[in-house]
Amino acid sequence: MENCPDSSIQARPVISPFPFSEYAEEARSPQRTIPIATYLAVTLLACFYAFTFWVLTVAFGVDGSIAFATGENFESMIFEASGSYLGSWAAICIQVLIVTSFFACILAFHNAAARYMYSRAANGSCLRPWGASADATTPRRPPPSC
């Protein structure tokens, strides 16, 4: 990483699979809580993915799941399973949840980027004004305009 420009070093923790280190200054005991949060998040995601694949295997069978996943309409696999077992309303609900989860991902990414840039600026390794914080009642300066 010696030859990396500074911007790539700044972006690396934002896209890291373990972003909980950004919250170290807010934790009571970060050496204990950050690893717990990381392992818990990875474990819950692994359990959710395993449950999802188990449901699809039960819905289509092993051979049917492989055939559906390697076919041309593989992206509609979860909608087909939910539509045939739960009804068309479930497929519509899942589509809405997927669209709103895209918005949540974008929002979380920008939040993580802003928090990381704030912590970098507060430590002095980025622009100082990005690390300034106001008191709880009013901002010290107006937000930047477009």
TrEMBL record:
Spans through the membrane:
36-69, 89-110
Q: RNA-binding among the record's keywords?
A: no
User: Which processes are annotated in GO (biological process)?
Assistant: transmembrane transport
Keyword Hydrolase in annotation: no
Q: Where is the Amino acid permease/ SLC12A domain?
A: 24-124
Q: Which InterPro entries match?
A: AA-permease/SLC12A_dom, APC_superfamily
Q: Which Pfam families match?
A: AA_permease
Subcellular location per the Swiss-Prot or TrEMBL entry: Membrane
Q: State the PANTHER family in the record.
A: AMINO ACID PERMEASE (PTHR42770:SF16), AMINO ACID TRANSPORTER-RELATED (PTHR42770)
Protein name per its UniProtKB record: Amino acid permease/ SLC12A domain-containing protein
| Species the sequence originates in | Glutamicibacter ectropisis
